[in-house]
Amino acid sequence: MSADFMKKFQTMNPDHIDFPKQRHQANARESVNSAFSKLRHLIPTEPIDRKLSKIETLRLAQSYIDHLAAVLITGNPNQPCSNIFHGDYEKVNHFQNRSNICTFCVWQRKLNPK
After folding, report:
1. Burial of 84 (0-12, 13-18, 19+ CB in 10 A)
2. Which run of H or E residues covers position 3?
3. What tens digit of pLDDT does each residue of 16-70 get?
4. What is the dihedral of CA 58, 51, 22, 3, to 10 degrees?
5. Residues with Cβ < 8 Å from 103, sequence gap 6 or more?
């Protein structure tokens, strides 16, 4: 927009909005929303098309990261979280405050019943 147009607009409308600031805020919001959308697609959910809230997304992402860390620690992709508590891994500080089985272990059990 030209400077002349902006001056005219501001003169006509004293309650003008600071367009660059508003656009910057909108871009930041869109960026955060886009990041949450991408994160939602990376986390396994049940049902698959369930839309998580932002706080649910963050909590489930943390749980999934812990689950994947348990897979790395135990070397067992099948219910690794329960193996941490019942095996030689009880001393791992990060996992001491967790329940015996996580959402993702339960989900795996549903997918692959024995």
Report:
1. buried
2. helix 3-12
3. 556 788 888 889 999 999 999 999 999 988 888 888 999 999 999 998 898 888 8
4. 130
5. 60, 63, 67
